[in-house]
Write a structure and sequence with these properties.
The protein is mostly helical and 307 residues long. Helix content is 66%, strand content 3%. It folds into 3 domains: 100 residues, Serine Threonine Protein Phosphatase 5, Tetratricopeptide repeat, CATH 1.25.40.10; 107 residues; 62 residues, no CATH class.
Length: 307
């Protein structure tokens, strides 16, 4: 009798799992395949979704991204042109999936149209060319992280591809840092009112990958911009923590994590008064530390207090 019940349970569970899979949107399945680096399979599903609903912006745009990651420019631009008429954001200008398209004249033409739409909705930028430069910095800054995840997922943590990708990332970071220093020396810290929030945050992304001296130099500028409502306090907190850990001092916001080779697990760098960390995080717009650390499978068990 027990064997029959076990078989019945497994049969019903299998039917349920298959039903759940069928209910999962095509775009969601395709996105998962794209994130895993299975681009051909992802594109096949995106096309299926496109045939079902050609007006689905998310599906069509993500299909264009998959083609762009393959450097299949003609198909990427074809579907970008299908997707973007309904979009009035700066997404395509800062999207790392489109990094290979930037030098193509078709990309610049699409960007011009997109900027016109953005400014029609949100108002004109004080410094539009600076905004474009910063969007490009954000795009290149965030590019190739997905490649490292795919390499480690398919080949293991110690593989032949990851060091090469990180060397490329290092060179990109150096180029961005040199360009940003010139911008800051000439214009000051990029402000939201000048270039918009996305472009302004690009400056932070570049500096957070810079060396200690550069971060230390510009932290007061970031703080001053935050006080004027021209920058994000959460970005300031991340930079503050990074500098603290580089100076071998406890961090305040728990944003910096390290790998412990002895336990082969991740752990946060030491935190000042860890029982109050969530209070400090909330003050700068960061969510609870337990949610943040769960990304690295870290269990946070320090009871939180307020004062």
């Amino acid at each position: 009798m027990r064997n029959h019940l076990t078989f019945l349970f497994l049969f019903l569970f299998t039917i349920y799992a298959q039903a759940q899979e069928k209910q999962m949107p095509v775009t969601t399945k395709a996105d998962s395949l794209r994130e895993a680096g299975d681009l051909a399979e992802a594109i096949a599903l995106y096309r299926q979704g496109y045939e079902q609903d050609a007006d689905d912006f998310t599906n069509t745009y993500n299909m264009a991204c998959a083609y762009a990651l393959l450097n299949n420019r003609d198909s990427a631009f074809y579907f970008l042109e299908q997707a973007l008429p309904s979009d009035s954001t700066v997404l395509m200008m800062r999207d790392p999936d489109l990094v290979f398209l930037y030098e193509d004249d078709r990309y610049q033409a699409l960007a011009e149209k997109q900027i016109e739409k953005v400014q029609a909705v949100h108002g004109k930028y004080q410094k539009p060319e600076l905004a474009r430069t910063l969007w490009r910095m954000m795009q290149t800054d965030q590019a190739f992280y997905g490649h490292t995840r795919v390499a480690e997922g398919k080949l293991g943590r110690r593989n032949i591809m990851t060091p090469a990708i990180w060397e490329l990332k290092h060179r990109i970071n150096e180029e961005n840092q040199e360009a940003l220093v010139e911008i800051i020396e000439e214009n000051g810290w990029p402000l939201r009112s000048q270039v918009g929030g996305t472009a302004a945050s690009a400056a932070f992304l570049v500096i957070q990958h810079a060396d200690y001296e550069l971060q230390k130099r510009y932290l007061p500028m970031i703080e001053a911009a935050c006080k004027e409502g021209e920058a994000s306090w959460s970005s300031y907190a991340l930079m503050y923590d990074r500098i603290q850990t580089r100076e071998d001092k406890p961090q305040k916001y728990g944003s910096q994590v390290r790998f412990n080779p002895e336990t082969e697990t991740y752990e946060p760098f030491p935190i000042l008064e860890p029982e109050y960390v969530n209070q400090r995080r909330a003050e700068v717009g960061l969510g609870p530390i337990e949610n943040y650390l769960s990304r690295w499978d870290i269990d946070w068990e320090v009871e939180q207090k307020t004062k």
